[in-house]
Amino acid sequence: MRSVSVGKMKFPLDRRYYKGRGAHVWLFADKDGTVKLGMDSFLTENAGFLNYIQLDKKSAVRKGSSVGSFESAKFVSRIYSPVSGKVVGVNQDILKNPRKINRDPYKSWIISIKPDNLKKDMLSKDLLGDPEAIKDWIIEELKKSESMTETVDYLKKADGGPRNRNKCRGK
After folding, report:
1. Which CATH class is domain 15-129?
2. Where are the alpha helices (DSSP H) in 41-109?
């Protein structure tokens, strides 16, 4: 299977990648007209071990809306849908053991949707399939992540860190 690599992260080209709302969700179109959604390797690398996934109790979703949330070793975040449609399947195995996503994010789908208008949704500028566009997006995301880490490190130093925080506040 062809894929794009950025560092140790791989992005198979048999699917699209949703960058809307910072989602890092992949979409795989099945032959039966449904799509499966999962998390890409950028998200799993940056989130660390996934501890918990909770899906919203919805029978239908709108493009850009939340379908659930996840908790990882590093943060809690929402999962957003790149398409509008009816929820037709949930991967209970992944809900019970979300760390399977860390082991293989592209075999670990979370939710299946029957899109209202897949052709229209696939035209979205937030749904990437072109190898160069995927690579450019991930490189940009890595730069943002690096910049955020540098800012947090700077702020920790600026306020003296946890031990000296009260001294910096004039206490």
Report:
1. mainly beta
2. 41-47, 92-96, 99-103
